Amino acid sequence: MKYLVTGAAGFIGFHVAKRLLDEGHQVVSFDNINAYYDINLKKARLAILNTNPDFEFHQIDLSDKKAIDSLFSQHQFYRVIHLAAQAGVRYSLEAPSAYIDANITGHLNILENCRHHNIGHLLYASSSSVYGLNRKLPFSTDDSVDHPVSLYAATKKSNELMSHTYSHLFGIPTTGLRFFTVYGPWGRPDMALFKFTQAIIEGKPIDVYNFGEMMRDFTFIDDVIEAIIRLQDNIPQANKDWTVEQGSPATSSAPYRIYNIGNSQPVKLLDYIEAIELAVGKKAYKNLLPMQPGDVVNTGADTSQLYDLIDFRPQTSVIDGVKQFVEWYRSFYNV
């Protein structure tokens, strides 16, 4: 089958594209390869994918409607897995317009093309950040998510609303994926695991926000990819009996679904740092700091609906996952 996987130069997009190629599918992708983080890491991911003749890549910006329209016109995609976006919570405080261009205008461009090209199923990246000020744990897709604390989170909530509208109006099956702190080999340099590993190896202090009193539902990349692959053939169906008053916000009378993709075993940030210290073989120098604007204190995913549907639960512990990342980091950077 032929898939469009947006953002294959990115962390999750790279792994999804590689998995599909390994299974014998054709993958077309585009990415703008922006400088939000190290371009060389993005190019290294693409170099691996480009060794497969069934991979086709285009450098396109999500806001470039004309180029995206042209790409859809050239191919008939079996599925669209939309993972490209402007990432980062803290950066959204510095460059808000980048999030509107990529995450709002860009998502609209994908939806419009899915509408006009009869795409059988659109899966797209949302985020655990949509839970914002919610305090009840674990976070459930049955919960309200109307109080985001960063523009990044607001754009992801907007993506869900936009997708529902297109599912309702045009019958496009859409599935939103609320990712919870994904980590692993080829991970992003702006994420804690990458920054902490680099600093500990180099003997430099690490910045630990909220004095380490945070919990995150760290989810290993292989488990995330397995969930996506299983979900892409679970096409949402319209539920004519659903009502706003009695139904879950994660479902609808339209062919629309939202799922949490997490490990469902939140870990204290200080324990996560201990796992990195163990894998690296050195102690961290911790610079304890107050809470950062836009951050949330704790996250934890209720994934029961997802994993009952796809018959899969995460297999990777933080100890094992962090070890695999550190091994990749040492190999890739030759340290």
Explain this structure to me?
The protein is an alpha/beta fold and 335 residues long. It contains 11 helices and 13 strands. It has helices spanning 11-22, 39-49, 65-74, 91-94, 96-116, 151-170, 192-202, 221-231, 269-280, 304-310, 318-333; strands at residues 2-6, 26-31, 55-59, 79-82, 122-127, 174-179, 182-183, 205-208, 215-216, 219-220, 256-261, 267-268, 285-288. Strands 3-2-1-4-5-6-11 form a 7-stranded parallel sheet, with helices on both faces. Strands 7-10 form a two-stranded parallel ribbon. It has a two-stranded parallel sheet with strand order 8-13. Helix 1 (11-22) links the parallel strand 1 (2-6) and strand 2. Helix 1 packs parallel to helix 2 (39-49). The longest helix is centred in the N-terminal third of the chain and has 21 residues, at 96-116. The chain is globular, with a radius of gyration of 19 Å. The N and C termini lie far apart (40 Å). The model has no long low-confidence stretch (mean pLDDT 95).
Could you give a quick summary of the protein structure above?
With 335 residues, this protein is α/β, with parallel strands linked by helices. The protein has helices at 11-22, 39-49, 65-74, 91-94, 96-116, 151-170, 192-202, 221-231, 269-280, 304-310, 318-333, and strands spanning 2-6, 26-31, 55-59, 79-82, 122-127, 174-179, 182-183, 205-208, 215-216, 219-220, 256-261, 267-268, 285-288. The strands form four sheets. It has a seven-stranded parallel beta sheet with strand order 3-2-1-4-5-6-11, sandwiched between helices.
